[in-house]
Structures are given as C-alpha cells and as structure tokens.
Design a protein that fits this description.
Layout: E1 3-7, E2 10-13, E3 18-25, E4 32-39, E5 46-51, E6 57-59, E7 67-72, E8 77-82, E9 91-99, E10 102-108, E11 112-117
Parallel strand pairs: 2-11
Antiparallel strand pairs: 1-3, 3-8, 4-5, 4-9, 5-6, 7-8, 9-10, 9-11
Length: 118
C-alpha cells in the first residue's frame, strides 16, 4: 500500500520558518512528481509547490521567494522549506505524489497543520 507520511507542521510566529517533510513508501519515488498543497478554512485546496522527477519546480505566486520545495530520491523524501511565514499561510498542508502516467495514480498524505500567529 502506498503511504505518504508527513511531519514538521506546527505553530510558528509571524516571520518564522518551518520545514515540512514527506516520506513516501510503496512507490518508485523517482518516477513521481511531488507536490505540496494547502487548504485554509473556508477555502479551496490550492497548489503551493511542485517538484518534478528531474527537480523542476513550480510555485504559487503567494509563496514565490519564501518557500522552497526539494526532494531526495535516495531517501524517498520531499521537503517544503517555509520562510517568512505569514498568518495567511495558516492551513492544512498536504503532500501529494503523482505518477508520470497522470492523476489516476495520485496519492495523498493525511495533512499537517501549520498555524502562523501574529
């Protein structure tokens, strides 16, 4: 069974930093695109960052320059380094793995809460 295990969420002050981690098992990790999404209360889920099989990256405009997505294929790990956090970043953050075959082979972590207070 595919499993994505997230860690690193928590409570952080305005301007602070957190690093989210996602460890995948049950997939050939290097063949999957990895992503981080978030959902704030009353809002739709939104893409935060993507990293492709060959480490190309895409960021939402709202986090560009503040967040960095990375991956370590040897460890089956994906990370989201979040700096200069703002209260608007408060959300549940979800790790996603998507096969090169498309969204029919897509898996999610259970989410981790990030709360930024001012």
């Amino acid at each position: 069974q595919v499993q994505l295990v997230e860690s690193g969420g928590g409570l952080v002050q305005f301007g602070g930093s957190l690093r989210l981690s996602c460890e995948a098992s049950g997939i050939i990790f290097s063949t999957y695109h990895m992503g981080w999404y978030r959902q704030a209360p009353g809002k739709e889920r939104e893409l935060v960052a993507l990293i492709g099989r060959f480490s190309s990256t895409t960021y939402a405009d709202s986090v560009e320059g503040r967040f960095t997505i990375s991956r370590d294929n040897a460890k089956n790990m994906t990370y989201l380094q979040m700096n200069s956090l703002k209260p608007v970043d408060t959300a549940v953050y979800y790790c996603n793995a998507e096969s090169a075959l498309g969204p029919l082979l897509s898996y999610w972590g259970q989410g981790t809460q990030v709360t930024v207070f001012s």
